[in-house]
Design goal:
Structural class: alpha+beta
CATH topology of the largest domain: HSP40/DNAj peptide-binding domain
Helix content: 10-25%
Order of helices and strands: HHHHHEHEEEEEEEEEEHEEEEHH
CATH class of the largest domain: Mainly Beta
Radius of gyration: 40 Å
Number of helices: 9
Strand content: 25-35%
């Protein structure tokens, strides 16, 4: 190939690397035998590839410009070029592989790698989720091998350099084709890409540097968590291969149902059933608080709160007790306690009770009521239900 290499690519002698690469890609797309069946295109493609290999390498280009042999006498300009297959792929797909020379190796894989994160689920009562608590967990994860301390080798021995790859972790496969030499890098089969071999693996961990073990951890559950909330314990997950740093442990909360209170966000909902007479005359009842579930004996925690039911309270009436709900997970504020009053109508009356009610109906002129027809009133419970179950 006696033609000037710059002319072969159609670039000026002061063209920069980007201009050379663009010119090569354009010509390779036109001349590649898989695209252009013209027999002459194969020779031109070889010339273009050879020119690109020289001009894209700064050292080879400098030698060529000085009139020397860019291949140091090893392979003349007319011989098959040892260019990287990556460059050909760049021409068609616009990749950014190494220009010129063989494909860059990745080197040996490290034996020491970070461990995986772990996830466990923990059931807690509503009161513990609301006010926070501390729990002990038993977890089964990979821990550092105490025999080899993560080295993977039996005590008194050490990993040795792989003779097959010379410690590179890769082997080179060279194939010749009409394109020239195509070099491909593969992980070394002898050392599995590590570059070293453990001649005597640790018997305790079989060379992995870690073993499985059950251990006890203490997890602090912050106030305000809900089902699905995850608490992160940094560095308490799986120890990595080769004794690598441990991943994180995530504890996902599952809050149990409460016999009295239902949670909606930061609010608590409950219902209180009162007799018809109490609703008509008014009364005050002691409503249990959620704090009572976690109160220590003898503590001054308020176990009940007074709930006033005014005279004439209707069934379905809602009373809001401010700041009696769930504390915010962010640490500021607290939700409300929404109490729904349910008026209970007696279903069994003795003769005297029935007589008194009849007398009351007569006094109130309610012996034959017509009733009042209106659209149904939606309580906060109904609105919450509709929000979660849209039609």
């Amino acid at each position: 190939m006696s033609q000037d290499l710059y002319d072969t690519l159609g670039v000026s002698r002061d063209a920069d690397g980007d201009a050379i690469k663009k010119a090569y890609r354009r010509l390779a797309r036109q001349l590649h035998p898989d695209v252009n069946p013209d027999p002459s295109s194969e020779e031109r493609f070889k010339s273009v590839s050879h020119a690109y290999e020289v001009l894209s390498d700064p050292e080879k280009r400098r030698m060529y410009d000085l009139g020397g042999d860019p291949f140091n006498g090893g392979m003349g300009a007319g011989a098959g070029a040892g260019f990287s297959f990556t460059d050909i792929m760049d021409a068609f797909f616009g990749g950014s592989g190494a220009a010129g020379g063989g494909q860059a190796g990745r080197g040996p894989r490290p034996r020491t790698r970070r461990g995986q994160d772990a996830l466990i689920r923990l059931e807690v009562d509503l009161a513990d989720a609301a006010f926070g608590t501390t729990r002990e967990l038993k977890v089964d994860t990979a821990v550092l091998c105490s025999t080899c301390h993560g080295e993977g080798a039996a005590p008194g021995t050490r990993p040795v350099t792989c003779e097959t790859c010379g410690g590179r972790g890769e082997t080179v496969n060279v194939q010749r084709s009409f394109l020239g030499e195509i070099r491909t890098m593969r992980p070394c089969a002898a050392c599995r890409g590590f570059g070293t071999i453990i001649p005597e693996p640790c018997r305790e961990c079989s060379g992995d540097g870690r073993v499985r073990s059950r251990r006890t951890l203490t997890v602090k559950i912050p106030a305000g968590v809900d089902s699905g909330t995850r608490v992160q314990l940094a560095g308490q997950g799986e120890v990595g291969p080769g004794g690598g740093p441990a991943g994180d442990l995530y504890v996902e909360m599952q809050v149990r149902d409460h016999p009295v209170f239902t949670r909606h966000g930061a609010d608590l909902l409950c219902s209180v059933t009162v007799p018809m007479t109490a609703a008509a005359l008014g009364t005050t009842i002691e409503l249990p608080t959620l704090e009572a579930d976690v109160a220590e004996p003898g503590s001054d925690v308020e176990r009940t709160v007074a709930l006033e039911i005014p005279r004439g309270t209707q069934s379905g009436t809602e009373t809001v007790l401010g700041a009696r709900g769930i504390p915010s997970l962010r640490g500021t504020g607290r939700g409300d306690l929404v109490v729904r009053i349910v008026v209970e109508t007696p279903t069994r009356l003795d003769d005297r009770q029935e007589q008194l009610l009849q007398e009351l109906a007569a006094l109130r002129d309610e012996e034959s009521p017509d009733g009042q027809v209106s659209a149904p009133h939606k309580s906060v419970f109904d609105r919450l239900r509709d929000a979660f179950n849209p039609r």
